[in-house]
Amino acid sequence: MQNVVLSTRNIDDLINDVANKVVEKIELWNVEPQKAPTQPQDELLTVPQAAQFLSLSVSTVYGLIQKREIPVMKRSKRCYFSKLELINYLKQGRKKTLAETAAEAETYLKKKGGCHE
User: Fold this and answer.
1) pLDDT digits (tens, 9 = 90+) for 18-77
2) How far out from the chain centre does Cα 35 lie?
3) Which of 42, 46, 65, 77 is the most exposed place for a label (fewest CB within 10 A)?
4) For the chain, give me the number of helices (H) and strands (E)?
């Protein structure tokens, strides 16, 4: 084995090399700056696409359209759906948990002055 004697100059060169490599890596990461999270982009869906998105049959989607239970846009003989509106439609059907229902009942009773025993 050889004895390597590191002088102050060699150590400085080594530190500079490492620092340059780190800077290069950081610059590579910053080539495409990270975008701030944005609102999801809306997308128009056809009836078959909406049916697939909602996990329903096409005929069920047409039934919901006929009953005016689902948000739809019509142009000519075609129906289109906003993906964001479908997501909101799904959220409106959310059932409350027992804990949420109990909390609402407790809040209601407190506003009414409580119950008399």
Assistant:
1) 777 877 777 777 666 556 666 668 899 999 999 999 999 999 999 999 999 999 999 988
2) 14
3) 77
4) 5, 3
Residue tagged 């289109």 (tokens): 80
Residues 71, 86: contact at Cβ < 8 Å?
Answer: yes
pLDDT of residue 9: 64
Classify residue 112 as exposed, middle or buried by CB count within 10 Å of its CB (0-12, 13-18, 19+).
Answer: exposed
pLDDT (0 to 100) of residue 18: 79
Rounded CA gap, 37 and 84, in Å? 16
Burial class (CB in 10 A: 0-12, 13-18, 19+), 81: buried
CA–CA separation, 84 and 88 (whole Å) = 6
The answer to whether residue 74 sits within a structural domain is yes
Alpha-carbon gap, residue 107 to 110, rounded angstroms: 5
Statement: residue 78 has pLDDT above 90 = yes
Q: Where are the strands (E) in the chain, listed by range?
A: 44-45, 73-75, 78-82
> Quick one: tokens of 95?
């059932």
**Residue numbers of the domain that contains 58:** 44-92
